[in-house]
Design brief:
Layout (H helix, E strand, L loop, with lengths): L2 E5 L4 H12 L3 E6 L6 H8 L5 E5 L5 H15 L4
């Protein structure tokens, strides 16, 4: 089992990657700008048994990226 962080996870290819990694047994940190409006992602996370967690991050905002990296590092101790 790996720890995977995926940005832009609210839709498209990234959402499918979230789905596939979780199905493979990996722990997925799904990062997106507006998690409150990412309905499909939130439904997937709710049904994942804790394999997927959804978090707010905007890759265009340095403070947001640092906060996202800190969050993943706090959970895993692996992101440096």
């Amino acid at each position: 089992m790996a720890n995977i962080a995926i940005t832009g996870a609210g839709r498209g290819i990234a959402l499918e990657l979230v789905r596939q990694y979780a199905a493979n047994g990996d722990r997925v940190f799904a990062l997106c700008r507006n998690p409150e409006s990412a309905k499909a992602l939130n439904e997937l996370a709710a049904a994942s048994g804790g394999k997927i967690t959804v978090h707010k991050m905007d890759v265009g905002d340095d403070a947001s990226v640092k906060a996202g990296a800190y969050l993943v590092d706090t959970w895993t101790g692996k992101w440096r």
